[in-house]
């Protein structure tokens, strides 16, 4: 008996040595522990033994069983661990490899400027309003002190659709619309961003379609000083805290006085450089006090009310701010240009880095 038990143990040990995978191990387990295995065979022989022998042999057999189970379990653990290690090795992630670049869409630079301007003026209590791009001559010109035949119409060569309808040449049309809609009921504080159209030949600085952001404030006792303070805040927000602005006399039919606004060059700080053409100043927008005719024609008593208006060109602001030298870049949708403003996660210009 004892020999038998020992030989089973030895056989198992040598067979275990050969096993390299879990499946073969399981087969081996079935072979040894199954009903037809050597251990079952030995137990079935117990019946013919004396009580003394049964005691001794029973214990030895039990020990063998436990030992076989332990050996099989230990081997199983070893194999499982080896398998796991192998998998980990295969699936190892090299965190030093450069990551895949994820291109996510970004906000167009023009939209960026418009958003920024809106945010600023909303914080100062302005409403953001809109008006139609296909506009009546009435709002685009006549109600802005530009009657038919007025020479200043020539400077805004227009796309007429009919005698009376055109693609608006300026968002100033929304000044007239807003005044008309309010008619002295409330003071006005609005900005109006939108597309405008002129029959220009497209080149580096001209586009037949471009954007404007109109601004209009009307209330009692509004003065040129209010306009200056407002535009100073705008210039500092868009071009930097150290900026100073200056007014130059100009002409727009719907404002009197009319002014052009310059800001100290944000590149050289005002000493003179190529960007400001050596002058230290950069022109940023047109503005003025709302002309009494315009107030009157749109339902406001010019004896009681005054106001100011301004027109910002987002293209110009974006070109200055981002150093873009061809306006056509905004419209041709070349991804190489647009990507300069987009976020590339994991890329060289990842904004989160
Ligand atoms: N509408 C003018 C233009 O297109 C700009 C402007 C707006 C000037 C408001 C004064 C006041 O040139």
What does this structure look like?
- Helices cover 40% and strands 19% of the residues.
- With 353 residues, the chain is of the alpha+beta class.
- A 7-stranded mixed sheet has the order 2-5-6-10-9-8-7. Strands 1-11 form a two-stranded antiparallel sheet. Strands 3-4 form a two-stranded antiparallel ribbon.
- Helix 1 packs parallel to helix 4, helix 2 packs antiparallel against helix 4 (51-90) and helix 5 packs across helix 10 (314-322).
- The site of phenylalanine has 10 residues, from strand 9 and strand 10.
Give the cofactors and ligands.
Answer: phenylalanine
The CATH superfamily name of the largest domain is: Bira Bifunctional Protein, Domain 2
What profile does the largest beta sheet have? 7 strands, mixed
Total count of helical runs of at least 4 residues: 11
User: Cα-atom Rg, whole angstroms?
Assistant: 43 Å
Strand content: 15-25%
From N to C, what is the helix and strand string? HHHHEHEEHEHEEHEEEHEHHE
SSE layout and pairings?
Layout: H1 2-18, H2 22-33, H3 38-44, H4 51-90, E1 102-103, H5 109-123, E2 127-128, E3 134-136, H6 137-140, E4 165-167, H7 173-182, E5 188-197, E6 209-219, H8 224-239, E7 245-252, E8 255-264, E9 281-290, H9 292-297, E10 306-312, H10 314-322, H11 335-338, E11 344-345
Parallel strand pairs: 2-5
Antiparallel strand pairs: 1-11, 3-4, 5-6, 6-10, 7-8, 8-9, 9-10
